[in-house]
Specification:
It comes from Jatrophihabitans endophyticus. With 342 residues, the protein is an alpha/beta fold. The protein is built from twelve helices and 16 strands. It has two domains: 198 residues, Quinone Oxidoreductase, Chain A, domain 1, CATH 3.90.180.10; 136 residues, Rossmann fold (3-Layer(aba) Sandwich). The chain is globular and about 60 Å long.
Length: 342
């Protein structure tokens, strides 16, 4: 089969011919990939930014946002069958550790992260995963239409869902970055809260999309955007800021936009947040980290998606055009999400 393989950092992955995966364990599931999301994390992987955290052995197949059809199942699999349409939680988990028992799937001590940790991911024709990662979908669902919800979607939903108790009517939430994750975050905020949604982005097209998806106000990131957000909130700042960028200065802006007693939710990454500890204690602002989400949250997100309350805006590419998709994402030429379709 064809697969998008990373052989060395700072070099583009290549399309290789590799053996198809096969079931070897009782809970294994092989999925025929119908859509694989192209994420900014894939760009970070290529640059070696995950090497220290994951220490993957190269080469391996990238791609951690996947949906498709069940192709083969292990002897103990009962929740899905061959032919079922599924979306895959990005981290197959053990189900036995304390984190799993508490429903904190993303902190499982024995999880794998296909496409990130050296385990082969889904930018391929077939992917080996586990029964615990599979969420069965309506057969009419097209995997290419929902694949990016497996990571971008669940990550945005996870952050918004945690903040729901803080976002009662009369509050303001700021979304920094209305791209692949941010445009999902805007929809989740509109679906789950009655907060006033303000979106900040430097791209006018991204702001137009945000308006269409539920943003109440939009702000161009033009160097005055922190002041503009302050003005829109009567000088106080936002109750919650969701930073889907968190690099190139956005992390400083996000902190500055957060009101005293408010919370700055960090979802994007790549930058560094430098905050005097006096500012933290004197204003009682919170910094909240967010990574992926739980199996249940992905299942909840799919309910919203199948009800039409959260939709992905996508640009599709054939698997052979993976390098083009990565280039377009890096160049800011993708509105919403790029999806590889084998």
């Amino acid at each position: 089969m064809k697969a998008v393989r990373l052989h060395a950092y700072h070099q583009q992955p290549t399309i290789d011919e590799v053996a198809e995966p096969a079931v070897t364990g009782p809970m294994d599931v092989v999925v025929r990939v119908g859509g694989a999301g192209v994420c900014r994390t894939d760009l970070h992987i290529i640059l070696g930014q995950w090497d220290e955290a994951m220490s993957p052995t190269l080469p391996y197949t990238i791609g951690h946002e996947n949906a498709g059809w069940v192709h083969e199942v292990g002897s103990a699999v009962t929740n899905v069958a061959v032919g079922d349409t599924v979306i895959l939680h990005p981290t197959p988990t053990c189900g036995l550790c304390r984190a799993c028992r508490a429903g904190q799937d993303m902190h499982c001590v024995a999880s794998t992260f296909p496409g990130l940790d050296g385990t082969d991911g889904g930018m391929a024709e077939y992917l080996l995963t586990s029964a615990r990662a599979c969420i069965k979908l309506d057969p009419s669902t097209q995997p290419k239409d929902v694949a990016a919800l497996a990571d971008a979607g669940i990550t945005a939903y996870h952050a918004v869902r945690k903040a729901v108790p803080l976002l009662h009517p009369g509050t303001t939430a700021v979304v920094i970055g209305a791209g692949g994750l941010g445009h999902i975050g805007v929809q989740c905020l509109a679906a789950l809260t009655a907060t006033n949604i303000v979106v900040v982005d430097r791209n006018p097209d991204a702001l137009k999309l945000a308006e269409a998806l539920g943003a109440n106000q939009t702000v161009v990131a033009d160097g005055r955007h922190v002041d503009t957000v302050t003005e829109l909130t009567d000088g106080a700042g936002a109750d919650v800021v969701f930073d889907f960028v968190a690099e190139e200065g956005a992390e400083s802006d996000g902190w500055a936009m957060t009101r005293p007693g408010g919370s700055y939710y960090v979802i994007g990454y790549g930058g560094e947040l430098h905050v005097p500890t006096l500012d933290v204690i004197s204003t009682e602002r919170n910094v909240v980290g967010n990574i992926v989400g739980t199996y249940n949250e992905l299942a909840e997100l799919m309910v919203l998606a199948q009800a039409g309350k959260v939709t992905l805006h996508t640009k599709t590419y054939p698997l052979d055009a993976a390098q083009e998709a990565l280039h377009d994402l890096d160049a800011g030429e993708v509105r919403g999400r790029a999806i590889l379709v084998p």
